[in-house]
Amino acid sequence: MITPLPFDSSLFGYAVGKCMVGEEWSQSDFLEAARSFRLVYLFSEEPLPIENSPIQPIDLRLTYFKNLKRQNANSAEIHSYAGTLTENLLNLALESGVFSRFHTDPNFVNLEFEKLYQRWIEKALTQHEVLLAKNQAGLVTCSIAEHDAQIGLIAVQKDQRGKGWGKKLIQAAENFAIQKEAQTMTIATQAANLPASALYKSLGYQLIERKYIYHFWR
User: Where is the N-acetyltransferase domain (predicted)?
Assistant: First the structure.
């Protein structure tokens, strides 16, 4: 019922697991199985009927999808970045996660959000997945597995918003993916992040999944 998550457990310093909620899910059985975990993420296709429970709703994740059929006009303002992690890049990575459940859940009190997103941008740099706008106005990361691409982090500096950087970053990521023979792109965001959803829809992305996420804390 609960799958241990060694990476999260090691990074956070306590036992973390995940539970994919199915039709046979039982809250009482889950609570019994969760006794050996400090934190468990629960993922459900539908809202869970929980009352007076340590299981708390924390996020509604939306996943968008698009077939990549042609390249956009290349922007000279965005380029692949192969350098080291800078303070500005780290700040952009953290800015990309302000709607994240790791940022909004008040039970994270040991810099879990900062640790996770720093590790995320470090990994993207190692794998050459970072695209950076000029003057570090924004960044996007794009990972590719076979013919499927996925945008991970995307953020624009606060003083650069409203200038079209979000659209340019997405299109640059699409070009990057197409050049590596990807055929599709997915992007996940939070339902609370209304500007992101509006941007993705305007660029032809379709909503393909809604996932209700809960956190159990012991």
Answer: 76-218
Quick check: 71 pLDDT over 80? no
Q: Residue 142: beta bridge partners? A: 151
Q: Label residue 66 by pLDDT band (50, 70, 90).
A: very high
Domain covering 64-210: architecture? 3-Layer(aba) Sandwich (3.40)
Q: How far apart are the C-alpha atoms of 172 and 170, rounded to whole Å?
A: 5
Residues 81, 106 contacting (CB under 8 angstroms): no
Ramachandran angles phi, psi of 217, nearest 5°:
-120, 135
**Cα separation, 205 vs 118, whole angstroms:** 28
* pTM, rounded to two decimals: 0.93
CB 69 within 8 A of CB 38: no
